[in-house]
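Job type: complex structure
Entries:
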Amino acid sequence: MPLPSQIRRIVLTGFMGAGKSTVGDLLAEKLAWTFVDVDKEIEARAGMTVAAIFAKRGEQAFRALEATVIRNLSEREELVLALGGGALETESTRTLWNELGSTCVVFLDAPLEVLVERCLAQPGPVERPVLADRDRLLRRFESRLPHYRAAHVTLATQALSPAEVADRILDSIAKRFANEAAAESVPLR
Ligand code: S3P
C-alpha cells in the first residue's frame, strides 16, 4: 500500500530496545527518505556521548538539548526520525508534531522484560544511563506509556523482525490515514 501523500515525516518512539534505530534505517531505505537518529545527532552536536552528557551535565541538560535538536531536525520533509526513549517526557516535543502537521508518530511497543533483554543483548559499548538506573526503570516505563500510546500508530513488535516491523508500519500508516483528508486533522496529544 502506498504511503499517503500527506505524510512527510515518520517519527519512531518507544522505550530503549524498541528497535527505533534499526527499523528507522530500514524504513528510510524503503521510502528513499533520510533517516536521522536523534541520539547520534545530539552526540555529534555535543561532541560527546549521551552517557557523557548525562554524567557531566545531568539529565535535565540532556533533555533540553534533546528537545532543541528534535525541533531543529523536524522541519525537514521525507524524514524518518528515531527519538530517544525519553524524548516524549518533554512537553514541547509531545506537541511539536501537531504544530508541524504531516507527521505520523509510530509507537514501537513491547513488554519491558523483552526491551531490557534486547538492550542487554546488543553488541558494542552502548552505555545507557537510564537503563543502568534499575530502581527507576519500571516507574519510568510506566510513566512514559501514556505518551507513547498517544501516537497515531502503535505496533506490537515482540514477535516481529525489524524488516517485518518496517513493512507493518507502512501498512498501518496507509490504513490509519486512508480516510483522512490531511494528517493535520488527526490530533496527537
Ligand atoms: C534514553 C534513551 C536513549 C537515550 C538516552 C536516554 C531514555 O535512547 O536517548 O540514553 O531516557 O530512555 P534509546 O531509546 O535510543 O536507547
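Summary: The two ends are 27 Å apart (CA to CA). DSSP finds nine helices and five strands in the chain.
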